C-alpha cells in the first residue's frame, strides 16, 4: 500500500478483514480518510484523523486550536503495531 503511495491513516481491527486462513489472506477496508501521495512528493499531513486508541503520538498531539504537527504515512506502522499488540495480548495497548 505504501509502495503504491497510499497512506491508510485509520488502521484498526475493524478495518482488517481475514479473507482466508489457508493460505492466510488479509485485506484492508475503509479507505475513507486514506490519502494518495505522489511518488515525487515529500508529503506530510496536518489533519487529525484516525481512531485515537490506534493513533501515533504525532497524530494525537494535533489540536485544532494550535499549530498542527507534520506526520507521514509512517503513522500506519504505529497503528499496525497497536493492532498486533492487541492480537497478542488480548487487550488494547492504551
From TrEMBL:
<dbReference type="Pfam" id="PF00069">
    <property type="entry name" value="Pkinase"/>
</dbReference>
<feature type="domain" description="Protein kinase">
    <location>
        <begin position="1"/>
        <end position="94"/>
    </location>
</feature>
<dbReference type="InterPro" id="IPR008271">
    <property type="entry name" value="Ser/Thr_kinase_AS"/>
</dbReference>
<dbReference type="GO" id="GO:0004674">
    <property type="term" value="F:protein serine/threonine kinase activity"/>
</dbReference>
<dbReference type="GO" id="GO:0005634">
    <property type="term" value="C:nucleus"/>
</dbReference>
<dbReference type="GO" id="GO:0000922">
    <property type="term" value="C:spindle pole"/>
</dbReference>
<dbReference type="GO" id="GO:0000776">
    <property type="term" value="C:kinetochore"/>
</dbReference>
<dbReference type="GO" id="GO:0007052">
    <property type="term" value="P:mitotic spindle organization"/>
</dbReference>
<protein>
    <recommendedName>
        <fullName>Protein kinase domain-containing protein</fullName>
    </recommendedName>
</protein>
<dbReference type="InterPro" id="IPR011009">
    <property type="entry name" value="Kinase-like_dom_sf"/>
</dbReference>
<dbReference type="InterPro" id="IPR000719">
    <property type="entry name" value="Prot_kinase_dom"/>
</dbReference>
<dbReference type="GO" id="GO:0005737">
    <property type="term" value="C:cytoplasm"/>
</dbReference>
<dbReference type="GO" id="GO:0005524">
    <property type="term" value="F:ATP binding"/>
</dbReference>
Amino acid at each position: 500500500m505504501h509502495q503504491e503511495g497510499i497512506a491508510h491513516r485509520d488502521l484498526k481491527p475493524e478495518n482488517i478483514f481475514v479473507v482466508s486462513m489457508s493460505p492466510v489472506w488479509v485485506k484492508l477496508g475503509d479507505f475513507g480518510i486514506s490519502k494518495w501521495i505522489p511518488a515525487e512528493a515529500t508529503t506530510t499531513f496536518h489533519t487529525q484523523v484516525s481512531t485515537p486508541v490506534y493513533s501515533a503520538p504525532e497524530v494525537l498531539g494535533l489540536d485544532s486550536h494550535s499549530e498542527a504537527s507534520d506526520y507521514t504515512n509512517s503513522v500506519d506502522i504505529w497503528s499496525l503495531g497497536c493492532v498486533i499488540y492487541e492480537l497478542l495480548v488480548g487487550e488494547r495497548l492504551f
